[in-house]
Amino acid sequence: MKIVTICGAGIGSSAILKVNAEKALATLGLAAEVVAADVASVREVSDDANVILTSQEFVEAIGTTYAEVIVIRNHFDQSEITAAVERSLGESPAP
């Protein structure tokens, strides 16, 4: 599994999202590669991504992708990020 975090320059918001996505994975007991990138290189880094975490302002620039694009409203809200990762990558409970 692969998560890509995207921001304008690839060093600010995406780095914060990367760290928090890694924390979410650890909390959930899931394994995935997490890569931070800038919006200009999204095509190269997200070819094999399952999930892209980003801000609303970059969704349109991401364009068409097979990855699930998830808008994170608060990059510092660990519960928001953990819930998003769990919904996307976590296994659904058996009925």
Short descriptors:
single chain; about 100 residues; alpha/beta; four-stranded parallel beta sheet; 4 strands; about 40% helix
**Global mean pLDDT:** 86
Please provide the ordered H/E string of secondary-structure elements: EHEHEHEH
Low-confidence stretches: none
Largest sheet: 4 strands, parallel
- Name the strands of the widest sheet in spatial order: 2-1-3-4
**N-to-C CA distance:** 24 Å
The value of Rg in angstroms is 12 Å
The geometry reads as globular
| Structural class by SSE content | alpha/beta
How many helices?
A: 4
Roughly what percent helix?
Answer: 25-40%
Strand content: 15-25%
How many runs of DSSP E, i.e. beta strands? 4
Q: Could you give the topology of this structure?
A:
Blueprint (H helix, E strand, L loop, with lengths): L1 E6 L5 H16 L4 E6 L3 H4 L5 E4 L4 H4 L5 E4 L6 H12 L6
Parallel strand pairs: 1-2, 1-3, 3-4
Helix pairs in contact: 1-4
What does this structure look like?
The chain is of the alpha/beta class and 95 residues long. Helix content is 38%, strand content 21%. It has four helices and four strands. The chain has helices at 13-28, 42-45, 59-62, 78-89; strands at 2-7, 33-38, 51-54, 68-71. A four-stranded parallel sheet has the order 2-1-3-4, covered by helices on one side. The two termini are 24 Å apart. The model has no long low-confidence stretch (mean pLDDT 86).
